[in-house]
């Protein structure tokens, strides 16, 4: 069997080639079962550092560690078989130098088997993106509202409302594209800026809170499923999982209390 015949997953190169074509569909994914469910529907899934907030109830993504990302990356790789899996480089694992970033990215790729990493930041990270890409690590960029910079940004603030802010994000997007990223997340920016970035950079833009002007969209899975208690304006709830869980758990609790569960069909019998 040829080497090519074994490659079944979407690759970073495939995603790069989708610029300007059919919109790219993506969601976050943190665990094996949901990865298996969403796998047929998405082009890539992101093991985002938002897992700190969604899975662990943290207030920001700042405390998330490389080990946490690797553990959930492994779970998502086990659950999925077709979509590209991209794993976030968490805060503190890459900013210090290109060499530190390379070591973190290599750990992620070797220990999870994922196909790419994502890194927040603009012009200041361009040299690092180039360093990684030149050494075989596909990098997805992330510009606009970058949650790991929440403490310097002063909160989760929409970017590009002023001309100066829009110019800065455009320059970031240019730098990340020129450095060799295969795609970039554009988060929390006003529509005209999302459109300007998408028209200008030669790689796909993946929007979150960045209007339909992007080449694709990403949402946090738990947000769009209706599981997260609070969601930002840009999220549409496509499901109501919290309600379904409540109903199911309430039915279970009632069945245990009135002894209708376990029923005959759930009980092991001795061999006769
Ligand atoms: O961590 C994450 O979920 C992300 C998305 C918001 C793009 O980076």
Approximate helicity band: 40-55%
Number of domains: 1
Q: Given this structure, which CATH class is correct?
A: Alpha Beta
What is the mean pLDDT? 96
Helix count, per DSSP? 12
Task: Give a short overview.
The protein has about 270 residues and is an alpha/beta fold. It is built from twelve helices and eight strands. The protein has a single domain, classed as TIM Barrel (Alpha-Beta Barrel).
Descriptors for this entry?
globular, 3-methyl-2-oxobutanoate hydroxymethyltransferase activity, TIM Barrel, alpha/beta, eight-stranded parallel barrel, 272 residues
What does this structure look like?
This protein is of the alpha/beta class and about 270 residues long. It has one domain (about 5-240): TIM Barrel (Alpha-Beta Barrel), CATH 3.20.20.60. Helix content is about 40%, strand content about 15%. The protein is built from 12 helices and 8 strands. The protein has helices at about 5, 10-15, 30-40, 50-55, 65-80, 100-110, 125-135, 150-155, 165-180, 190-200, 220-225, 240-255, and strands at about 25-30, 45, 85-90, 115-120, 140-145, 185, 205-210, 215-220. The chain has an 8-stranded parallel beta barrel with strand order 1-2-3-4-5-6-7-8, surrounded by 5 helices. Helix 6 links the parallel strand 3 (about 85-90) and strand 4. Helix 5 (about 65-80) runs parallel beside helix 6, helix 6 (about 100-110) crosses helix 7 (about 125-135) and helix 9 (about 165-180) runs parallel beside helix 10. The longest helix is centred in the C-terminal third of the chain and has 17 residues, at about 240-255. It is globular. The N and C termini lie far apart (about 50 Å). 3-methyl-2-oxobutanoic acid (KIV) binds near residues 28, 46, 49, 88 and 220. 3-methyl-2-oxobutanoic acid binds near residues 28, 49, 88 and 185. Pfam families: Pantoate_transf. Its cofactor is Mg(2+). Belongs to the PanB family.
């Amino acid at each position: 069997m040829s080497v090519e015949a074994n490659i079944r997953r979407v690759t970073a190169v495939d995603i790069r080639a989708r610029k300007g074509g059919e919109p790219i569909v993506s969601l976050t994914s943190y665990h094996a079962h949901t990865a298996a469910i969403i796998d047929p529907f998405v082009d890539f899934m992101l093991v985002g550092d938002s897992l700190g907030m969604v899975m662990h109830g943290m207030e920001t993504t700042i405390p998330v560690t490389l080990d946490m990302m690797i553990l959930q990356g492994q779970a998502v790789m086990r659950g999925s078989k077709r979509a590209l899996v991209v794993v976030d480089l968490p805060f503190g694992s890459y900013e210090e130098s290109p060499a530190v970033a390379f070591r973190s990215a290599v750990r992620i790729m070797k220990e999870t088997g994922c196909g790419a990493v994502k890194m927040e930041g603009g012009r200041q990270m361009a040299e690092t993106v180039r360093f990684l890409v030149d050494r075989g690590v596909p990098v997805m960029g992330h510009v606009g509202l970058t949650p790991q910079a929440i403490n310097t940004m002063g909160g989760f603030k929409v970017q590009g409302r002023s001309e100066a802010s829009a110019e800065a994000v455009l320059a970031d997007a240019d730098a990340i594209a020129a450095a060799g990223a295969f795609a970039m997340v554009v988060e929390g920016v006003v529509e005209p800026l999302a459109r300007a970035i998408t028209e200008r950079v030669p790689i796909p833009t993946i929007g979150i809170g960045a209007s339909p002007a992007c080449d694709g969209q990403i949402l946090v899975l738990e947000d769009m499923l209706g599981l997260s208690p609070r969601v930002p304006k840009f999220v549409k709830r496509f499901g109501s999982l919290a309600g379904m869980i409540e109903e199911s758990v309430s039915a279970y609790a009632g069945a245990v209390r009135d002894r209708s569960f376990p029923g005959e069909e759930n009980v092991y019998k001795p061999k006769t």
